[in-house]
Amino acid sequence: MSEAVQNSIEEITPSEWELMRIVWTKGQLYSRELIDLMQAKRSWSDSTIKTLLRRLVKKGLLQTEKQDRRFLYTATISETEAMNGSAEQLFDHLCAMKKGETLLNLIQHVELTQTDIQKLQAALTEKAKTAPTEVACDCLPNSAKCD
Amino acid sequence: MSEAVQNSIEEITPSEWELMRIVWTKGQLYSRELIDLMQAKRSWSDSTIKTLLRRLVKKGLLQTEKQDRRFLYTATISETEAMNGSAEQLFDHLCAMKKGETLLNLIQHVELTQTDIQKLQAALTEKAKTAPTEVACDCLPNSAKCD
DNA sequence: TCCCTCCGTTTACAGTTGTAACTCTACATG
DNA sequence: CATGTAGAGTTACAACTGTAAACGGAGGGA
Where are the alpha helices (DSSP H) in A40-78? Predict the structure, then answer.
């Protein structure tokens, strides 16, 4: 059946990401606050935002708790889980042989702090200890190779 | 600004990625070959694959050239462009402050070759020369901070 | 010449996403 | 008590996705 394990996080659409980020940042809040914060960034109608909230609840990404007569929203998965899950989902689509190239591009274009860089370097050094000299392309059934 | 920028590549759906990867790998091929290769990985009907191909052409990701009486398909964007574009789109949804963390997770989970690692390290070293000590969260309009 | 088969085109249909109006209900207020 | 109102729920609707059957024309073989 459903619930419990989300064996690879529900898809989060772009609009949903925006809402989730607010929830993660604030921890918990009422739809009214959510709507106000959201409208400070996007001119979406109240209705639109409420629809998105309900969909997020249905997907199990948000949960509500009745307070007075309104609902307090909280996230059911952490921002880290969501970020890592989505990033991994994306990388799953890429040719195994070219993931490194894509990471390189990201590293060059994403803003990173000195601390981030240190951690990344440490991880790479660690990874180098067991990394292979090559990774095979997995774009075709098995036959022809990737260049 | 930059140059020749393609204002953010058409969205590529998961099914479409699978087809595109075959096209990128083979360079150019007829729908029949594409269908056969695809069916060796997924049990999609001919029809389904043909529909996807037409949609990819409509989106401008594939282009056709009439040969005899069938079409030869080729990609209009390179695999690298697509990979980088999609990866950047994903990262656009993430909190600026947490992109480093996500990259760290990817680096730890993605299979990388020694060469990939060396390049990544070189890029990081370069980046460290100008990296800031912190990056601000951009999840809320401006107000409240991220944790 | 006739039909079968291959390939491309049309149509289909449910589910998801973006976007939003409308409605219902319980309160607060006059 | 009569209402306006905030917050929740219902309905809507077009575009996009996943998945595929059905249709139509052209070439190859009988």
Answer: 46-58
Do residues A44 and A51 make contact, with C-beta atoms less than 8 angstroms apart? no
Q: Mean of the pLDDT values across residues B117-126?
A: 98
Q: Supply the pLDDT for residue B146.
A: 47
Domain A1-93 has CATH 1.10.3720.10: no
Give exposure, A48-69, as e/b (b: 16+ Cβ within 10 Å).
ebeebbebbeebebbebeeeee
pTM of the model: 0.90
Q: Domain residue spans in chain A?
A: 1-93, 94-147
pLDDT at B6 over 60: no
**Which two structure tokens, joined as six digits, stand for A14?**
């772009």
Which bases of chain D are contacted by protein, using any atom under 7 A from a CB?
6-12, 16-22, 26-27
Q: Report the footprint of strand C: residues with C-beta closer than 7 angstroms.
A: A 11, 13-16, 43-45, 47-48, 50-52, 55, 59, 69; B 30-32, 47, 50-51, 54, 69-71
Facing residue for B37 by CB, picked from A102, A134, A141 = A141
Average pLDDT score, chain A: 91
Q: Residue B85 contacts by C-beta under 8 Å, 6 or more apart in sequence?
A: B6, B8, B9, B77
Q: What is d(CA A5, CA B27) in angstroms, rounded to the nearest whole number?
A: 40
Do B111 and A135 make contact, defined as CB atoms within 8 angstroms?
Answer: yes
| pLDDT for res B82 | 97
pLDDT at B9: 80
Yes or no: say if A145 and A137 are a contact pair by the CB < 8 Å rule.
yes
Instruction: Please give the residue that has the higher pLDDT: either B3 or A86.
Output: A86
Whether residue A145 has pLDDT greater than 50 = no
